[in-house]
């Protein structure tokens, strides 16, 4: 709106076309293609139906629907309260906040990476990571959620995974606080105007969410490379 | 020779025809507008749209296809409801009947199932496109918020449907999914700090979801009611708001 006032009277190029038939015809075609494609696929591939449910005999592996397998995969690295509840909640809240956190006026209504490198990079990273986890959970996890490459046979006797250990509590707390502290403070040193441009609250929320996403990945790496079970282990809560 | 055109003329100029179709089909600008604004369904669209908004390379048509899949699921879902009873003693048998006995039952069930998966994919791709075009920026912030809620509802729709066949796949998938609720901080009996609110297996949030401590008849009924009535109604209401907002926010986004 502000932009328009400054520009005074601008000839708005009228690129409008009639919705009928320009838009409606395409929608109609899309609907036909989708219907035909869906019916064709349904004709050749049956929807799964296993035996009658049996509470006494657990499926192994028991898998959630594929779109939740990223979260189930995260269970390997985190306790259920985080992987199954807090992480998805943070993702949803983070998504809802996107329009209010991203105050870059450029790139509104057209494709551009150059004008909004940060936003696009972060979003694409999260998007791809979500689907990578889903792929691992769907295709590479066998009985007892053991890892199998696509070319490996699923078996029940795989080598026992190495024992896991927790970080000492003080070290864990220091690392965790140091991570968030450094993550919040360092960018301000490298890009002085960032606080001014974003405002304090927006900055803290954005970086907090970003650091949590990165931290989630880091924890997975720690687990895989250094057999770390918990960074912070207490009788009440483990992270 | 003239019988056919005459007949058409007679029909299209009759009172009955004209009471249904208010205007002719001649390809004039006026008719193109009328075509949209005199039709309650097409009226979802403005009579004129910005040209780039009709380009598939801009929208990928993903929002529209998501909506279409929702309609497709509604229709096939209603047909499935004629054959399916959410009773633990019948549900699985009804599935087997659908696959082997009911005419076109297999196609019906398959397409409902694959359509649901497709919808999850298209809605997430739609979100990706909206992000990449920056279409959540002012004035469309709130429509993005509505979208996120729709995304969650789409997942929940699919998830609640998963239990209904009452087979091993659905049963254990829902077991894994709802077991997460046990671990909810404060509200699940195995979650951190649950003791503060005195959570036990028979009064926590998982209990509320399942209507019991195990996945049994009440859980099946709950999944069914959420799946067939509650979530579709909520999602429809939000979709209406979503589409309404697109127009109120100045139509499809685009370079100024
Ligand atoms: C059931 C789910 C949904 C349906 C049926 C739906 C449908 C639509 C349709 C038909 C459009 C018109 C443009 C297009 O086709 O791309 C649209 C636009 C839009 N959608 Fe959705 N949508 C859904 C979910 C979402 C989600 C998950 C988001 C984001 C998180 C979202 C955000 C938006 C926004 C911001 C616009 C305006 C885009 C613009 O003006 O360029 N929607 N939606």
Describe the structure.
- The complex is a heterodimer of chains A (239) and B (256).
- In chain A, 57% of the residues lie in helices and 1% in strands.
- Chain A has 239 residues and is mostly helical.
- Chain A folds into 2 domains: 14-48; 66-226, no CATH class.
- Chain B is mainly alpha-helical and 256 residues long.
- Chain B has a single domain (61-248), classed as Cytochrome Bc1 Complex, Chain C.
- Chain B contains 11 helices and 1 strand, in the order αααβαααααααα.
- The longest helix of chain B is centred in the last third of the chain and has 32 residues, at 217-248.
- Chain B is globular.
- The N and C termini of chain B lie far apart (56 Å).
- Bound molecules: protoporphyrin IX containing FE.
- Protoporphyrin IX containing FE binds next to helix 5, helix 7, helix 8 and helix 11 of chain B.
Give the arrangement of secondary structure elements.
The complex is a heterodimer of chains A (239) and B (256).
Chain A: H1 2-7, E1 16-18, H2 19-22, H3 24-44, H4 69-74, H5 80-101, H6 117-139, H7 169-190, H8 194-198, H9 200-226
Chain B: H1 3-12, H2 15-20, H3 29-37, E1 48-50, H4 56-59, H5 62-81, H6 91-100, H7 105-132, H8 141-163, H9 168-182, H10 205-210, H11 217-248
How would a textbook summarize the main sheet of chain A?
A: none
Biggest β-sheet of chain B, characterized? none
CATH classification, class level of chain B: Mainly Alpha
Number of strands of chain B: 1
Query: Which chain pair has the greatest contact?
Result: A-B, 74 and 91 residues
- Computed over alpha carbons, the radius of gyration of chain B is 24 Å
Helix content of chain B: 55-70%
Helix residue percentage of chain A: 55-70%
> What general outline of chain A do the C-alpha atoms trace?
flat
Strand content of chain A: under 5%
Are there runs of chain A of 5+ residues with pLDDT below 50, and where? 1-7
Could you say how many structural domains of chain A there are in total? 2
What sequence of helices (H) and strands (E) makes up the elements of chain A?
Answer: HEHHHHHHHH
Question: What sort of overall outline of chain B do the alpha carbons produce when their principal axes are compared?
Answer: globular
**Helical segment tally of chain B?**
11
- Tell me the span between the first and last alpha carbons of chain B: 56 Å
Quaternary state of this entry equals: heterodimer
> Which cofactor or ligand species appear?
protoporphyrin IX containing FE
Query: What structural class do you assign from the helix and strand content of chain B?
Result: mainly alpha
Distance between the termini of chain A: 46 Å
